[in-house]
Amino acid sequence: MVWVKLLTLELGSAAWSIATVLACFMAGLGGGSAWAGRRADRFRRPLQAYGLIELAIALFGFISAPLLERTMRLLDPLYGLIDGYFPLFLAAQFLLTFIALILPTFLMGASLPLLITALTHDQTFRQHVALLYGVNTLGAALGTFVTGIVLLPALGISNTLWVAVGV
C-alpha cells in the first residue's frame, strides 16, 4: 500500500494508483513464481538463494520511495511531448510504474518456490505448487489490468461488475 500511496500523491488518483500497482504486483509475483518454480532445483543452496532474494527485496523497499518519485517526474516533460493526449499519458504512467516495480515484485514471486524447494524434497509437489501459484497469479494480474484499464473506462462500474459476475 505504500507504493499505492506514493503513486496517489504523485498522480492524484487513488483508483488509478491501486490498479497500476496491483497489476504490476500480480504480474511480478506470477512471473517470479513461474521462473523460480522451473529453476529451483538448479540452486545448490535454495535457502541461501531465498535469503539473498529477501535481502534484495528489503533493499528495494529502502530505495522505492525516491525511485518512484524520480520515475514519476519523467511524466511532466512527456505530457508536453505527447501534446496532452491523455490515453497515451495513462499508458506511459503504467509503463513507467511497471518498469519501476517489476524487479522487486518478480523477486517476491520467486521467493516462495525457493523456500518450498529448501523445505521439501518431493519434486512433484514442488512443481505443482509453483505452477498453480504462477498460473493463478498471472491470471489475477491479467484480470486486474483488464478491469482497471479496459473495462472500467469502457463500461463503467455497474457493467464491469456484471462482467466480473459472469466470469
SSE string: HHHHHH
Structural Rg? 18 Å
Q: Approximately how much beta-strand content do the residues carry?
A: under 5%
Runs in which pLDDT lies below 50 for 5 or more consecutive residues are: none
The end-to-end distance, rounded to whole angstroms, is 27 Å
Q: Helical region count? A: 6
Main sheet record: none
How many β-strand stretches?
Answer: 0
Q: Compute the average pLDDT.
A: 83
Helix content: over 70%
| Structural class by helix and strand composition | mainly alpha
Shape: flat
Molecular structure report:
By secondary structure, the protein is mostly helical. The chain has one domain (2-166). 89% of the residues lie in helices and 0% in strands. It contains 6 helices and no strands. It has helices spanning 2-11, 14-39, 46-73, 75-81, 86-119, 123-166. The chain is flat and about 55 Å long. The relative contact order is 0.19. The model has no long low-confidence stretch (mean pLDDT 83).
Briefly summarize what is shown.
It contains six helices and no strands. It has one domain. It has 167 residues and is an all-alpha fold.
Keywords, please?
mainly alpha, 6 helices
Task: Please write out the topology.
Layout: H1 2-11, H2 14-39, H3 46-73, H4 75-81, H5 86-119, H6 123-166
Helix pairs in contact: 1-2, 1-3, 2-5, 2-6, 3-5, 5-6
